[in-house]
Bacterial Ig domain-containing protein
Amino acid sequence: MRCRPFFSPAGALLPTLGLTVGLLLLNGCARTTDTFKPRISITSTGGVSKDNSVLVDGYALDDTGVTQITVDGKAIPILPGSRKLAHFQFNAKIQGTQGKSTVAARDAAGNESTLAVPITVDAVKPTIQVTQFEKSGTAIRVSGVAGDNTGVAQVLVDGNRLNITPGPRVEFFAETTGIWADITVIDVAGNQTTQRAR
């Protein structure tokens, strides 16, 4: 009498059952939806220019990577480097004294964020008022007030930059040597005024 191998229908179902359980486990590990919108940051100073064109520099941050950056609806190149911290630059040109550019950043999931960048054209030079000038031999002490409509950024005396707090009105004091003191004031737009105190 020949023995026939025993065939169990339940045994045939085990591989199929294992596959079904595996698929259920994979579905439970599915990636979550990306809802993080890119964050845009402008690093160039101020948005104030002495010309009708200003270079705007910035970054767009995203956890999965930025795929596109546009300015006023037109795509601009993303500079070399990580797409998670996408570096960009563009020249903003405006008519008149006030303008605005809108930067938009998009990631691979289609999330998008925008940032309006206001730009002001300032052609007004800063002012210098010397309030005190003292000379003893070749030693000079000079003090005064620098002013500007958009803000004083730097004060230099004989080419040496003073430690100031930038603002529309800045008081300064310096010691130097020579016959006179050359004071230079630069505003946030890059306009500058030089005055010789003696």
User: Anything to note?
Assistant: The chain has two domains: 39-121, 127-197.
